[in-house]
Every structure is written in structure tokens, then in C-alpha cells.
Design a protein that fits this description.
Elements lengths: L6 H33 L5 H8 L3 H13 L14
Helix pairs in contact: 1-3, 2-3
């Protein structure tokens, strides 16, 4: 008996699973950030980071993605806006 192993299939399947897990984690984090902003739209990235327990840079990246998707909108300047 011969078993044929398709390495490309398994590599593609693993890549898809990893991508799916990454997207799921990002969505989960984005929901937390979004809900925190809904509860306090004057919260800074530092405030959100301490509430959620993520790094400031992670929060900034998530906020950037939410803005790009028109899910949230920044008002005013970056330093003193909301």
C-alpha cells in the first residue's frame, strides 16, 4: 500500500487555518476597542490599552484599521481630538 502525501495541500490548509485564527483574534480585539470607545469616546490609546490590557501600539493599529473601514471617525486633531 502506498500513501501519497500532498505537502502543498497541507501547507495551504495550515496557512488558511492560521489566517483564520489571526482574523478571529483581530476581530475580538477590535470589538473590545470599539466597545471601549463607545463607552468613553474621549478615551486615549493609553486609557484603552490599560482597560483592555494590550500595548498602546496595538490599540493605535486597531483604531487605524477601524478608521480605514469607516467604522469609527476621528474628530479634531490627533493630540486633542476624539
Amino acid at each position: 500500500m502506498v500513501t501519497i502525501y500532498n505537502a502543498n495541500y497541507n501547507a495551504e490548509k495550515n496557512a488558511q487555518e492560521m489566517h483564520s485564527k489571526f482574523i478571529d483574534k483581530f476581530i475580538e480585539k477590535a470589538k473590545k476597542v470599539y466597545n471601549t470607545i463607545l463607552n468613553n469616546n474621549y478615551a486615549t490609546t493609553n486609557d484603552i490599552a490599560s482597560i483592555i490590557g494590550l500595548a498602546n501600539r496595538t490599540i493605535a493599529n486597531i483604531i487605524k484599521k477601524l478608521k480605514e473601514q469607516n467604522i469609527i471617525k476621528g474628530i479634531g486633531p490627533d493630540k486633542n481630538g476624539h
